[in-house]
Amino acid sequence: MKKLVFALTSLAFLAFGTSVLKAAHHEEDAVTPTSVIHVVTVSWKEDATEDSIKAALESVVTLAHDYEGIERVWIKTIKAQGDRTHAFVMEFKSEQALKDYAGSDAQKKWYESYLPVRSHSTTFDITN
Questions:
Q1: How many CB atoms lie within 10 A of CB 106?
Q2: Residue 69, class by beta-carbon neighbours within 10 Å (0-12 exposed, 13-18 middle, 19+ buried)?
Q3: How far apart are CA 30 and CA 24, in angstroms?
Q4: Which residues does the UniProt record annotate as the domain Stress-response A/B barrel (predicted)?
Q5: 32 pLDDT band (50/70/90 cuts)?
Q6: Cα–Cα distances in Å, from 40 out to 10, 16, 75, 124?
Q7: Helix, strand, or coil (residue 104)
């Protein structure tokens, strides 16, 4: 009976230790992901309407569905500085996914709603 209790206790400690190590590994991955964040700050053309701006931003969400290399998007600007009034973010699965996106059919389709209303934009691509 003592051997059984010892074996079960040892097994419990082993399971606990493994879960702690696994959690620590996942925490590190969460802090330093290998995805690429594509940050775009935008100022719109003077004649751009609220509806056309909204459509251009919502098309970023559609783009994420059309292009497999995009994991997440953010389109709601909470605060903007300078002459840029909006920003949005695309999270690409990898640097290669970002490279493959340039000139892709999905990008060209998205540009149909975005470029007619965009005045200026600045992009930043960030990864670890």
A1: 19
A2: buried
A3: 10
A4: 36-126
A5: confident
A6: 53, 43, 10, 7
A7: coil
Q: Between the CA of residue 30 and those of 24, 26, 35, 53, 113, what are the distances in Å?
A: 10, 6, 11, 33, 33
Beta-strand relationship, 86-92 and 70-74:
antiparallel
**What sections of 67-117 are H helices per DSSP?**
95-101, 105-114
Coil, helix or strand for 23? Answer: helix
Task: Name the β-bridge partners of 39.
Answer: 89, 124
- Average pLDDT taken over every residue of the chain: 84
What residues contact residue 52 under an 8 Å CB cut-off, 6+ apart? 116, 117
Q: Which helix (H) or strand (E) holds 128?
A: none
Which numeric CATH code is attached to 36-126?
3.30.70.100
| pLDDT tier for residue 27 given thresholds of 50, 70 and 90 | low
**What is the pTM for the complete model shown?**
0.75
Residue 38 CB burial class (10 angstroms; 0-12, 13-18, ≥19): buried
